[in-house]
Amino acid sequence: MTAPQARPLDLTGDVRALTAALVDVESVSGGEKVLADAIEAALAPLAHLTVVRDGEAVVARTEQGLAERVVIAGHIDTVPLAGNLPSRVEGDLLYGCGTSDMKSGVAVALKLAAGVPSPARDVTYVFYDCEEIEAARNGLGRLARTRPDLLAADFAVLMEPTDGEIEGGCQGTLRADVITRGKRAHSARSWRGVNAVHAAAPILERLNAYQAREPVVDGLAYHEGLNAVGIAGGVAGNVIPDECVVTVNYRFAPDRSPEDARRHVHEVFEGYELRFTDEAPGARPGLTHPVAAAFTRAVGGTPRAKLGWTDVALFAGLGVPAVNYGPGDPALAHQQGEYVSLTKIVECERRMLDWLGAA
Q: Residues of 339-351 as b/e, b for ≥16 C-beta within 10 angstroms?
């Protein structure tokens, strides 16, 4: 049976039409091959680019020998479909899975890759897979482990949805289980046991009383959060439970390391048994670097903090300052009714062109 193929991508046409074409190629995480093939096929003939394929990631680089190199990166996968393909246009809005997060940003990056053969700084374009699922499968992380030379740069722009505003750095994230222990008993003789679910009440009280930090990091204001995101306990309808687990998620500003975050959670839940299950570091804004400053001037607006985790943290781990900037609205990401403003896509392309063309 012949493998499915996408229609050839037109990188010379309108960026809005290119966005729609990308959206209409289904690429749920783990199923990006058809779209990766189409992107590789569109970029490979361009004489000013060196194209490398790594799994379902496509890397395209200019090689002018300039003093500065920047990375422009975007993931090509989406969350599972929700009856939101094919794409459709209503007025200024393009609807469809991945329109905001982040095929509109990928379209802008592809247009730049094709349309700017002699940028003012060398560029590495990275179109990667599996961002929307577990970190172990993240295509950018794979490149960082196996081909870090491809990601070496002075500065990076991640085309994440930011509604056309620069969002610097990102918060770190940590998950932990706060555990209470009790003693089982028949619920008809509850006094013979110790109810672990009841013992969780003080944990929730601490969370309700928690005052989140709002630190300013490198000039950007972050807002932390520590919240219960799950609770589990109970054995049967006639048994006093002997264990209860409250799962908490701590979103911490990039002036704290994961080690700092764990210490803080220990302080908040002093006296309780803790089990840490997941963590990822944040990333400082990195806007003081000259290349980043030039990007800010070209894009305009007032940078703000990224209140969430993105792959800028991976670049930070490689020593590359990075920001988030894309036409999509982050508030619409992963929604069934996801859409992007066509005007914002055009505006993003223009501003990125201004930056890449500015010495």
A: bbbbebbeebbeb
